[in-house]
Write a structure and sequence with these properties.
By secondary structure, this protein is mainly alpha-helical. InterPro entries: AAA_16 (IPR041664), P-loop_NTPase (IPR027417), Sig_transdc_resp-reg_C-effctor (IPR016032), TPR-like_helical_dom_sf (IPR011990), Tscrpt_reg_LuxR_C (IPR000792), WH-like_DNA-bd_sf (IPR036388).
């Protein structure tokens, strides 16, 4: 429907908003900049009428105006629906510009009616290529086509009703908003704000758009009463009916509540002799419908089952009326302003979506089913009348399971061909749910594989795994073995990017054995199985065997025309090369693969970016790691695969690396999911990683995320490790050592089962708890101190065992692990020292020097500072003059990061006091033992109790207390505690 056909010809009460929208888009000339706008407002508030006014202004100033509409149910099933409409018109009006864009971006042909004949069918194309769908080239092609037109004549692109937009269209709009245009192109997207329930998918996208500085927001409020009154009088002037009485006008204004569409319908109902002012909204909207003759009502009822738009040919076929009667019915509906003719395409649309929805809701159940049956029959007889997605929708609503299933498969293939994995996943899922028990095995295998590929592409990894495993379990033993081999290849590939305990090597070997007699007939499946075997060998550290298999897998992939799979094998080869001790060769290989990628953002390139970032990460080049990870993430996001394997992993690791580098605000921005709707377990992974910064800053409220992530601990061990390590510090820094210990033990129990009893993450997890035991040991009762010391010794021993096991496999002795091992040894000595055991001061100092040096070599800013603070304490207790300097350096970092627990720890040493302020009247500092005793005095312990707890005599404790009072210059114990707290000597 053209914008100039929207609603009434009257335009009242929106002059300010029109001027604002004209200025934001630049369509009014006068040197204004072009820009992007998101327009919102309730249904019927006047969005389309406002857009029509602005479009008219644009045309008056020589702009080309292109409009795309999102449709309700159809909009959720056909990817890029509004852009299909826009590009269809663009192909007719600016064929040269479109042709240039297609030559530069061949995938754009998938969206162009005049080019689709040359696009390969998804059922016969390379499934790996279909999965990625050349989406990067496709969306770049749309951008290029708009850019081409804008370079010749200013262009206004309007996308209406994006609350109904498919995921692919939302992603494409995001790209257009983010990238912008060098030529004169303005983009406006409108949506119904009252349709956005709490879980509406557009909410996440809108949150992202709101953070884009180049995108303006304009929300239409209700019309003022004066404007509604002006509208009512204007409508009466256009009508030949008797004018409303003043009291009725006031009633219309009151009931319309600023909604222009409701005001129009109230006026129409009242002037037609109905008691519109007293009727409910649904009855009110049917008043115009009730004025139609029988043919008009029949046509409108049939049209309502199609949605807001329907082509003339399809409507004529389904309505089943003689041509004169059909024409009369359509004319009646148009004259009564129920339907409006479309500017192009020869079809019709409801004057307002609410009209169509109301008519459809008023149909009897039998009428609905019969209408959908007729649509399904028409679309089945002539596929040119509509899309497979439309046929699937109508057949499903009509209860025609077989037709709906076949159409859903075709619609899924079409969605993949158009680079719409989210829509494809929806279609394939429906097809599987409609599959009968007697279905052909090859058909079920094929749909399952398609559904798993689509699920993987949108980040639903466990759903893909469940689908494949379920099919393999249910598949009859008499089914063709080649089908089982292909399912095993997909299963092995999916399982390795999850926490599945599946033996991927066994799956790959079984598949190859099944395929062996008929391998030549299934070259693609053989290549996939060879690749899965290589990956399984590499995952087990059998690198020499994996390297031997790489060449065979690459050759098989290239022979089968699977270039991306061959590239993925080269990524695996580069990773093995790095583990073998040649990181520079690995780096060059990965960079070359990224540069030579034929389809930017494809799975192979995403994997190369991930591994290159990890190469930097492991080497302690954290800034480079963040940069590489983020580049890969942006490439994947641009092609609509932000949650796919390696793409999401890169984002998660980018946030962690930024945290380690001390770029905490950037880390939170990378890991923020407020503007997105991440699938699980990606959402829990992001929440768990954000807890790192919260722990560093002492934000105890973040512990609520612990429970939110817990359901995914068993299926995604990294979630447990991230959340657990943060929770250890959060609980203990809040004074709850028991809960910190309990979280540690729970995570170890889970990951010992999921991963390995000596999983490498214990180096960090156990060391953090060991450090907290040391920090709390002087606060625990004397009777419990021996248990704390024993627990600390066990943690230190486990760290050493983990390290010893890690060294048995290549690539596990990087700078991060080295740093945590050094820290574990230092914390073990610190615990013994603070716990009252004899510890060589020189050994204690040297252990902390090693920990500081190791974390600085790795680049972990916060842990280097925390280690430095503890080094400072060890130095001061040993009489070294440079202890204060180390504490001051650590404090600088703590202040910059906002690390409150570390600041409190340093303050407790006295290092946070103003420079030059004496700690006693004689300028003497309290010794470590005196600070320990002072802390017990603050707890109200008597000299005898202090002696018992510290294994010294009461007399010795009394001497220590006297020295403390003298050094602080106070007369009593209470005053000593007050002064100590004021000076930061105790909490």
């Amino acid at each position: 429907m053209g914008l100039d056909a929207a609603g009434s010809s009257l335009f009242v009460g929106r002059a300010d908003e029109a001027d604002r929208l004209v200025a934001l888009t630049g369509v009014g000339g006068a040197g204004a900049d072009h820009g992007s706008v998101v327009l919102s407002g309730d249904a019927g508030i006047g969005k389309t009428r406002l857009l029509a006014e602005v479009a008219g202004t644009a045309r008056d100033h020589g702009w080309t105006v292109l409009v795309g509409h999102c449709l309700s149910e159809a909009g959720q099933s056909l990817p890029y629906l509004p852009f299909l409409e826009v590009l269809g018109r663009l192909e007719a009006e600016a064929p040269e510009a479109v042709e240039r864009a297609v030559r530069a971006h061949p995938a754009l042909a998938r969206l162009l009616p005049g080019h689709r004949a040359g696009v390969p069918d998804a059922a016969t194309a390379d499934r790996a290529d279909v999965e990625s769908g050349d989406r990067g080239d496709l969306v770049a092609g749309v951008h290029a086509a708009l850019e081409e037109v804008g370079a010749t004549t200013p262009l206004l692109l309007v996308v209406e009703d994006v609350h109904w937009a498919d995921q692919s269209s939302r992603d494409l709009l995001t790209l257009l908003f983010t990238r912008g245009f060098s030529s004169v192109v303005s983009v406006v997207a409108s949506y119904r704000s009252d349709d956005l329930h709490r879980r509406h998918p557009l909410r996440a996208t809108l949150a992202h758009w709101s953070r884009l500085a180049q995108v303006a927001r304009l929300d239409l409020p209700p019309l003022p009463d004066a404007a509604v009154r002006e509208l009512v009088h204007g409508l009466q002037a256009q009508s030949r009916n008797r004018p409303l009485a003043d009291s009725d006008v006031r009633a219309v204004v009151e009931r319309a509540e600023g909604n222009a569409f409701f005001a129009e319908e109230l006026v129409a109902a009242s002037t037609m002799g109905h008691t519109g002012l007293a009727e409910d909204l649904s009855r009110l909207l049917l008043v115009r419908f009730d004025q139609l003759g029988a043919p008009g009502q029949h046509v409108v009822r049939v049209a309502s089952a199609a949605g807001r738009h329907v082509s003339h040919q399809l409507l004529a076929t389904v309505a089943g009326l003689p041509e004169p009667e059909l024409d009369a019915g359509l004319r009646d509906a148009v004259e009564h302003h129920v339907l409006v003719p479309l500017d192009s395409g020869g079809g019709y649309a409801f004057r307002h979506a609410l009209l169509g929805e109301t008519v459809y809701d008023d149909l009897l159940p039998g009428e609905r089913v019969r209408a959908h049956e007729r649509y399904a029959a028409a679309l089945t007889a002539d596929h040119a009348l509509g899309s497979w997605a439309e046929l699937a929708r109508h057949a499903s609503a009509a209860g025609q399971r077989d037709v709906a299933r076949e159409a859903s498969v075709r619609a899924g293939d079409s969605a993949l061909r158009m680079a719409g994995p989210e829509e494809a996943w929806r279609h394939f899922s429906l097809a599987l749910s409609l599959m009968p028990e007697t279905a052909d095995d090859d058909e079920v295998d094929g749909v399952t594989l398609r559904a798993a590929a689509a699920a993987t592409a949108v980040g639903r990894l466990y759903k893909a795994l469940d689908l494949l495993q379920d099919r393999l379990e249910r598949r009859p033993s008499t089914a063709p073995p080649a089908g089982r081999a292909e399912l095993l290849a997909a299963l092995a590939t999916a399982a390795r990017v999850t926490e599945s305990t599946l033996d991927t090597l066994a799956a790959a070997k079984e598949g190859l054995a099944l395929l062996d007699p008929v391998a030549e007939a299934h070259p693609r499946v053989r290549a996939q199985l060879l690749a899965a075997r290589v990956q399984a060998l590499a995952d087990r550290g059998r690198d020499e065997e994996a390297l031997v298999g790489v060449e065979e897998a690459v050759a098989a992939a290239r022979s089968a025309g699977m270039g991306e799979l061959a590239d993925e094998m080269r990524v695996v080869e580069a990773r093995i090369t790095e583990r073998a001790g040649d990181p520079e060769k690995s780096r060059r290989a990965l960079e070359a693969l990224i540069e030579s990628s034929r389809s930017p953002g494809d799975p192979a390139q995403a994997r190369a970016f991930h591994h290159l970032g990890w190469l930097h990460h492991r080497a302690g080049r954290l800034d480079e790691a963040v940069d590489v990870y983020r580049r890969g993430v942006e490439r994947a996001r641009a092609v609509g695969r932000p949650w796919a394997p390696y793409a999401f992993d890169g984002r998660l690791l980018a946030g962690i690396a930024a945290y380690e580098r001390g770029r905490w605000d950037e880390s939170l921005a990378i890991l923020a999911a407020d503007g997105e709707a991440p699938p699980e377990p990606a959402g829990s992974s992001l929440r768990a990683a954000r807890m790192y910064v919260a722990a560093g800053r002492g934000e105890v409220a973040a512990l609520t995320e612990l429970e939110a992530t817990r359901p995914w601990w068993e299926r995604e061990g990294l979630v447990a490790l991230l959340a657990g390590t943060a929770a250890v510090d959060l609980h203990a820094d809040a004074g709850d050592l028991d809960r910190a210990t309990a979280v540690h033990d729970e995570v170890v129990d889970v990951l010992s089962r999921v991963w390995d009893p000596l999983f490498q993450g214990q180096l960090r997890l156990g060391t953090l708890l060991l450090g907290q035991l040391a920090s709390h040991v002087q606060r625990v009762p004397t009777s419990a101190r021996a248990a704390v010391l024993a627990r600390g010794a066990a943690l230190a021993e486990t760290s050493q065992l983990v390290w010893d096991q890690a060294l048995t496999r290549p690539g596990n002795d990087g700078p991060e692990s080295t740093a945590w091992l050094a820290r574990s040894r230092a914390e073990a000595l610190r615990l013994r020292w603070l716990g009252g055991e004899d510890v060589d001061p020189a050994e204690l100092v040297e252990s902390w020097r090693s920990a500081v040096a190791a974390f600085e070599a790795y680049g972990h800013v916060f842990e280097a500072a925390r280690s430095r603070a503890r080094l400072g304490v060890a130095l001061r207790s040993s009489g070294h003059a440079d202890g204060s300097a180390e504490l001051a350096a650590a404090l600088d970092v703590a202040v910059r990061l906002g690390a409150q627990p570390l600041r409190a720890e340093i303050r407790a040493t006295g290092a946070a006091r103003p420079p030059g302020r004496p700690t006693s009247r004689h300028g003497e500092a309290l010794t470590a033992r005196e600070r320990e005793i002072l802390a017990l005095v603050a707890l109200g312990r008597s000299n005898k109790q202090i002696g018992t707890q510290l294994f010294i005599s009461g007399k010795t404790a009394s001497v220590h207390v006297s020295n403390i009072l003298a050094k602080l210059g106070v007369a009593g114990r209470g005053e000593a505690v007050a002064v100590a707290r004021e000076r930061g000597l105790i909490d």
